């Protein structure tokens, strides 16, 4: 399990233990975290799981794929240097203790 904290736009914080290999989108939607829609079911086709990752995650994650970068062009909220799609982030030991902040809107 990987301990990840999700911070909703309203400030509510939810700490989850995410099974290794699950996407952060899967974990958030399975636990009712408000702010991640995941309309495409995790196939990197909608950008409704846009999130901002903290420095720990930025350092641990591989660069976004070309498809993810393309989808990030379509986010509804401000795109930032630490913007990622939660469907493309898989839980694992390197992400332990990371924090994901959700934008004020996804659509």
From TrEMBL:
UniProt keyword Phosphoprotein, yes or no: no
GO CC, alphabetical: cytosol
Domain 2Fe-2S ferredoxin-type: 2-106
GO terms of biological process kind: P450-containing electron transport chain
Keywords: 2Fe-2S, Iron, Iron-sulfur, Metal-binding
UniProt keyword Metal-binding present: yes
GO molecular function, one term: metal ion binding
InterPro entries for the chain: 2Fe-2S_ferredoxin-like_sf (IPR036010), 2Fe-2S_ferredoxin-type (IPR001041), Adrenodoxin-like (IPR001055), Adrenodoxin_Fe-S_BS (IPR018298), Beta-grasp_dom_sf (IPR012675)
Cofactor list: [2Fe-2S] cluster
Family: Belongs to the adrenodoxin/putidaredoxin family.
Name the record gives this protein: 2Fe-2S ferredoxin
Organism for this UniProt entry: Sphaerotilus hippei
Upper classification of the organism: Bacteria, Pseudomonadati, Pseudomonadota, Betaproteobacteria, Burkholderiales
């Amino acid at each position: 399990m990987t301990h990840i904290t999700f911070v909703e736009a309203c400030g509510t914080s939810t700490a989850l233990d995410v099974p290794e290999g699950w996407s952060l989108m899967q974990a958030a939607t399975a636990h009712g975290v408000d702010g991640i829609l995941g309309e495409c079911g995790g196939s990197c086709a909608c950008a409704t799981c846009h999130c901002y990752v903290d420095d720990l995650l930025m350092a641990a994650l591989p660069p976004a794929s070309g498809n993810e970068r393309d989808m990030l062009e379509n986010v509804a909220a401000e795109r930032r240097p630490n913007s990622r799609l939660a469907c493309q982030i898989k839980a694992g030991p390197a992400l332990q203790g990371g924090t994901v902040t959700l934008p004020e809107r996804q659509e």
